[in-house]
Amino acid sequence: MTLDTGPRTRLGTRPRTRSRTGPRPTPRSRRRAAPGGRLRGGGLSTFVFALPLLVIFGVFSWLPIGRALVMSFQKTNLLTSTWVGLDNFRAVLEDPLLMTAIVNTSWFALLALVLGYPVPLIAAVLMSEVRRRKGLYSALAYLPVVVPPVVAVLLWRFFYDARPEGVFNSLLGGIGIGPVPWLQSPTWAMPSLVLEATWAAAGGTMIIYLAALTGVPPELYDAAEVDGASIWRKVFHVTLPHLRGVLLITLILQIIGTSQVFLEPYLFTDGGPADATLTVLLLIYRYAFGQSLGADYGKATALSLMLALFLALLSLVYLRVTRRWSTT
Amino acid sequence: MTTTDVPPAFSGAEAAPGAAPAELAAAPGASTAGRPPRNGRRRRAPASEEQRTAVSPQDWRRPRVRFSLTATHLVLLALLVVWGIGPIVLLAKFAVTPTQDILRTPLALFPHGIAWGNLAAAWNDVRISHYFLNSVVVAFGAWVCQIVVATTGGYLLSVLRPRYATALNTAVLATLFVPAVVLLVPLYLTVLRPPAGPSLLNTYWAVWLPAGASAFNVVLVTRFFDSLPREIFEAARVDGAGPFRLFWSIVLPMSKPILGVVSVFAVIASWKDFLWPLLVLPNPDLQPLSVRLPALQATTDLGVLMAALAISTIIPVLVFVVCQRLFLRGAGLGGAIKG
Amino acid sequence: MRPGRTSQAMALASVVALASLTACSSSPASGHSGKLTLSVVSLLPGSEKAAFDTFNARVAAFEKANPTIDVQPHEYKWEATTFASQLAGGTLPDVFEIPLTDAGTLIANGQLADLNDQFQKLPYAGQFNQNLLDKGKGQNGHVYAIPAKSIYGVALHYNRALFQQAGLDPDKPPTTWDEVRADAKAIKDKTGVAGYAMMASGATGGWQLTAAMYSRGGQVQQVQKDGSYKSTLDNDAARKQLEWLKAMRWQDNSVLADTTLAWDTINQAFAAGQVGMYTSGSDVYSSLVETLGVTGKDYGLTALPLEGPGAGVLVGGTLAAVGAKADKATKDAAMKWIDFYYLQNLVDENQAVENAKVRAENKQAVGTPVLPIFSREQYQQSLKWIQSYINVPLDHMKGYTDVMFDQPIVGEPTRATQEIYTLLSTPVQAVLSDRNADVGKLLTTANTQAQALLAHG
Fold first, then answer.
1. To pair with B194 at 20 to 30 A between CA atoms, which of A285, B201, C230, C295?
2. Residue C206: CB partners within 8 Å, gap ≥ 6?
3. Chain A residues inside the 8 Å CB shell of C106
């Protein structure tokens, strides 16, 4: 697997170069030297320990992956399956909704980046400077993450009531704005979804940044101060560069995550109004589970595989491109 | 990566911890980040004072810096209060507001009195307690399954290391690269018609067992076991401990920190899971809160629905407030791992 | 985490889990004690407690009459998104309900059980409305699905209190679409509440648009001479209705701005007094009582306006069916239940009275106007039996009941029905959410897609 080596070698080395905070990982030589041979009993006991992993991964991971590959070339109604070659892929590509779904998903991902990427970063950098009650700050920021996502969506759905009496419209009306149609307009629906998604997720990202900020080697700040650097310079030349690794990874993780967004469009708008929030995953869901008279599992797996392939290529290209920047 | 990873990836803008290749980096970092909890309180306090940031103590002494930073922090705090507590406070208010007031004047403060009845109705008529219990059962089973697979698997791959360990390891790692969405349909069909035995649909096994197939957990635990000193194993061996004793009395007790982390991830993921239980638990009596609440919204009075939402929120929020440290460290660890 | 206890708990848990992992393949023993367990659909999830009490009382009566059958009720709501997989996965109750429109395909796919033997034994087997019964018959003429529960015609439901507040006469509901628009505007202007609402989500928007299309003389699809189907979504009736809706939304601002309304959520909005008028099946009142505890005081029901040549009322309904894998004993028991629960209270005086009595005692709707499963005479006869228990506000339903047998009725489209409904929801959502929506273009697009669906068979 080509992807495998990319992230692992690059990232695998990273913590070691700055593992100031914890005990060093066991040196390789020692591990090698360990007389694993004698532990390597094999036989029954080893098999007992292998069983859960083999059974669970076999049935619920490896088997379905293989099945996905097969099914994308088949037409099946669960009773019988017939081979149809590339028909499923062709049908997906010919579906006029595919383009809509791709555009919508990209729009969601882009908005989520614009809104959800810088906010936690700025908040984390500011919060790392807090001297008293730091715990309160991070607890407040993290609180929305704890709210069950379904509850959050149902609650926000009500906040987004498009009438002037709606919660957000009342608030905005107080300062003379609106009423905003929120989920009831093809233009506003997607930003509304992203806003809620950001609310629900930003706390988690921020805590990650905060943790990464504790790992900045103090020597770097000392050195910068010796050079008489201002606070801004320190932020831009020491803090942020140090976060680069984390930032690059959260970026690609966020893109991978947002390309599979489902909960918000499903529960907020069911893809509406007029398909304005129909995402790729919602389309897959509709192929597979959305028709009362028989699902199109073949089309659904074909589109899933296409999405997976796209994400794999994207990650690969991304890692190639960013490798140069992240090794400083 | 299967269901436990499915939901977070599906559920929002933020990628789930444990959803992507990058986390393989967990390797060495895991042990370092996993350890502090043991004597955390004592070691942590000085550590946070020591932590150096862009603003040095010298900087703090400058009045202008001190003033503008304090001001910024106050603004930040205010924003965080609005951000973090605002919607939850509104939810709490709606939970005890008569429906007509919620609809007509959502922001007015109880113009027609408080409707405590909403809470009772949510608890008794909507049977929130029942679905809450279902959520707990789902989470507990998923947790057990993940711990069992991750610890035995980790032990196998890191300590026992049979001949096929490398191949097995690769096969587990490979699943990390398959996005959850690919598995949605085939996994559903597998649950519908498992290779052996009856359909798992409408049983909790359909949620529990796929949750166990989390490559992220296996990798995390394997790497942690890798970092344990082999001398101890050797000594135990010399004392005549078999592979089970070694696992039970030596390896597991040493792995508490990493098991805590896996547990936090497992419980959070299960609590958030929506699409998967929606598909495999069509029987309303079995559904967890996350699936049940959207189904009920159309037939439930708005005030009662808000009360139901509030009750479903209060418990995780309380757990969070009580175990804040554990949560934030767990989440931060996700970051440390990612870094 | 307290280390000691946790690890012990964890150890214990792992043992338990390991043990159960190996044991999980053994199937749960079904406790046979000579009794046959029959799972049936009960009510919509989230129904009122009184409604469940009513249902359970009927179950108890059935079990008393059939001591060898153990009835297990399951809450149930037919949903396009889950039905197919539930049927395939075998997780539907033994007896379930399906829309009239879907029976043909399900029978052709071999997914429903042949109930012909059981059906023909019913004493009233010959009395069914033949057109209706045909919907549940297979190519071989056997009966697979049986008309049950209710047959509805789409009608206009309105809030009498809002009519009054707006200075309108609640006893003179609108009879043309223009009057509907005028009244909706009056309600919005006088009370601030949306005068009209329309389902738009999933397949429901297209369902109601089709009903409106029919009421203006439009058709969704036509059978060609060669037997193929031609999509005719892009018709004048559809254009008029969408332009009408668009004008109400953007000129009058009298429509509830919510494109996520479905069959149940629009009921909810109506029950909460947020909506002046909406269209839905004539039997909705029962559900309003069952799930939302509505009382009849402010409820009004009138006929859908019919305009132009060929105009008719969309009629649909529910069939009861059994999955293809059921054995004979289950099919026998299922037919007993269908007979008892769905049909006897229409044909047997004692059962009709008994049913009405239990419903009335639990304040569930008795006497909601529906279209007859048997003959019109039979229907009116059955209403006479239960006259003293009728508790629906008949006075408020005259606008519908006076004409319900005289309105020409049109069945739902027969090919790819739910898919085409879903396609048609898009134009509805578009005019409700986009001021500049191009009705002609939306319909052309939907028509092309529908034609493709029809071509595939």
1. A285
2. C420, C421, C422, C423, C424, C425, C428
3. 293
